[in-house]
Design goal:
By secondary structure, the chain is α+β, with helices and mostly antiparallel strands. The chain contains 5 helices and 13 strands. The longest helix has 15 residues.
Length: 251
């Protein structure tokens, strides 16, 4: 994932609302979301991991890269494996949080968010982790959790306006939020070492080009009644829609 938006304990009926975009080269082979045993996720066929998923236990996990091309280890473990491990591990969230801090240097820069309606955890091997117990609207891209990049702030503002209305979450609205292609001003862009043209491309919530862009948009809703909804839309070059899947289960 390259954009993650979370509304935690902001809605009277939905204690956790998660929406995110996975940005990647279109040539990287991928399978869309499906149940793989007790884990619902997409699959990166190149390295075997995933970018976002949820287990039948209710635990979800999302990983984003920490963008710093000057600090890249070619023999590091695939960051997508972190999500698969977190979703399949029976250890407590607290134990996983501790262990991920210890093992983080085996990977290139990453941010990992996991948990569920009872608590959220943010781990990075490029900065301090966080245990999120306070209600709020949170965001993450390719820097540290809650770094106020323009796309993060725009996404959070849209999600905040929506949940404040109190209506039942609508996947159509959340997908529309994730499809925003408004580009920030050049002076507001971060400087991550990829050059101005690529910074411009990466600055929008939804990224579209011939070779690199938003491959999947995902919405994950947890209801107070134990119902979980996972919906995914897939895209090809230039944002061409490739399909939509929806899964429902109960905790």
């Amino acid at each position: 994932m390259c954009l993650l938006l979370i509304a935690y304990r902001q809605h009277p009926d939905y204690p956790l609302i998660v929406a995110g975009n996975r940005d990647e080269y279109y040539g990287r082979p991928t399978e869309p979301a499906a149940w793989r045993g007790d884990i619902l996720s997409g699959l990166d066929l190149e390295a075997g991991g995933t970018w976002m998923g949820v287990a039948r236990s209710g635990r979800f996990a999302v990983v984003t890269n920490y963008r710093d091309p000057a600090d890249h280890l070619p023999d590091a473990r695939s960051r997508g494996i972190l999500v698969s491990q977190v979703l399949s591990d029976p250890a407590s969230d607290v134990e996983l949080y501790r262990r991920l801090h210890e093992e983080g240097q085996l990977y290139n820069g990453f941010n990992l968010v996991f948990g569920g309606p009872d608590g959220l955890y943010s781990v990075s091997n490029r900065g301090p982790g966080q245990v999120l117990s306070e209600p709020g609207v949170y965001g993450l891209s390719n820097h540290l959790f809650e770094t106020p990049w323009p796309k993060v702030e725009r996404g959070k503002a849209g999600l905040r306006r929506y949940v404040e209305q109190g209506a039942a979450p609508n996947t159509g609205f959340l997908f529309e939020l994730l499809a925003n292609r408004e580009r920030p001003r050049d002076e507001d862009l971060p400087h991550t070492g990829v050059g101005l043209e690529f910074e411009r491309l990466l600055s929008t919530i939804f990224i579209s080009s011939a070779e690199y862009g938003t491959r999947a948009s995902t919405v994950l809703l947890y209801g107070h009644d134990g119902r979980v909804l996972f919906a995914e839309r897939s895209y090809g070059p230039h944002g061409q829609p490739l399909g939509e899947r929806e899964f429902r289960f109960r905790l």
